[in-house]
Amino acid sequence: MKKPRALTPWRALRLAVCGLVAAMMLAPLAIVLTLSFSAAPFLTFPPPGFSLQWYAKFFADPVWMATLRTSVMVMIPSSLCASALGTAAAIALSRVRFRGASLLIGLLMAPLVVPVIITAAAIFGAFRVWGLYGTVTGLILAHTVLTIPFVLSTTLASLRMVDRTLESAALTLGATPWRSFWRVIFPLILPGVLSGLLFALVISFDELTVSLFISTPTVRPITVQMWSDVRGSVDPTITAIATSLFLFTLVVMLAETLVSRRARGRRPPLAALGF
After folding, report:
1. In the predicted model, what is the mean pLDDT of residues 3-26?
2. What is d(CA 208, CA 225) in angstroms, rounded to the nearest whole number?
3. Which pLDDT score is estimated for 139?
4. Of 1, 65, 100, 141, whose CB is crowded by the most CB atoms within 10 A?
5. What's the CATH code of the domain at 121?
């Protein structure tokens, strides 16, 4: 049985610093979560009482529901498109060796490096010319561009862990390249693809800057509506919406963690290839 390590001063200092950082990060979330159940008609902490009135107001308000529907209409297609395009790009980049491959990967990952305000301004200018400004299609395309890097990175990481001899064995047993990919390679990289998909869902649902540039009063995601509401009269309803977004993100992240843990160490046996 492994003995627990002694609590040295250096280790105690590290634990204290980590605890302080965690408290600083979680304290605002805890305050917002508490205020979302406040019975007060305005933002006050600690709340004088607890009530579900702000959640009821959120789900009963047609403006908030319209922006929520817009967010869902953008989030799902953009995440699926990003998953398909990011996976295809990862497979191509992992199989084809050519000069400039690193440069191409850098370009595809650029939305993670380039300041979001620059990306938003570029998309705004292009969409104004293409007639996509203020449309759901434009929001879907913009969010797809922003979320492709997340799918690309997770899928590339999964492909690097795949044993290529499994595919060679499938080809030796008579499988076509297409069938060997779907029956051998794709099940192995599926956890990485799903992780990228879940990340894309969260990023799309929480995205503000680019959406702020290309949305209109009639077509706007919920994050843009939250921004407009905060700039005007601050209503405690915003805390209920923020809590709902946080819970959605938390559920998705827990699902991603579960997918990663279940996929760890899983490899299909050669006897199960079935060719």
Report:
1. 78
2. 10
3. 92
4. 141
5. 1.10.3720.10
As given in the structure block, the two tokens for residue 231 are 């700039």
The three-state secondary structure class of 50 is: strand
- Which residue in this structure is represented by tokens 């990862």? 90
Task: Please check whether residue 18 lies inside any domain of the structure.
Answer: no
The reported pTM is: 0.79
What would the mean pLDDT of 87-100 be, rounded to a whole number? 79
- Tokens found for residue 58: 């959120």
Positive or negative, the CA dihedral 93, 204, 258, 16 is positive
Q: Which of 219, 107, 198 is nearest to 151 (CA)?
A: 198
Residue 134 is given by DSSP the state T
Q: For 116-140, what is the mean pLDDT?
A: 89
Cα–Cα distance, 83 to 89 (Å, whole number): 10
Q: Which amino acid is at 11?
A: R
Instruction: Convert the pLDDT of each residue in 26-80 to its tens digit.
Output: 787 788 888 778 777 777 777 777 888 888 888 888 888 888 899 999 999 999 9
Residue 271: inside a domain: no
Q: What's the Cα-to-Cα distance from 137 to each of 71, 111, 124, 141, 162, rounded to whole Å?
A: 12, 19, 13, 6, 36
Tens of pLDDT, residue by residue over 187-197, are 888 888 888 88
Q: Which domain holds residue 244?
A: 50-265
Please indicate, yes or no, if residue 207 is contained in any of the structural domains: yes
What's the alpha-carbon Rg for the chain, to the nearest Å?
A: 23
| Token reading at 115 | 């300041």
Task: Evaluate whether 147 touches 108 at the Cβ level (below 8 Å).
Answer: no
Q: Is residue 202, in this structure, part of any structural domain at all?
A: yes
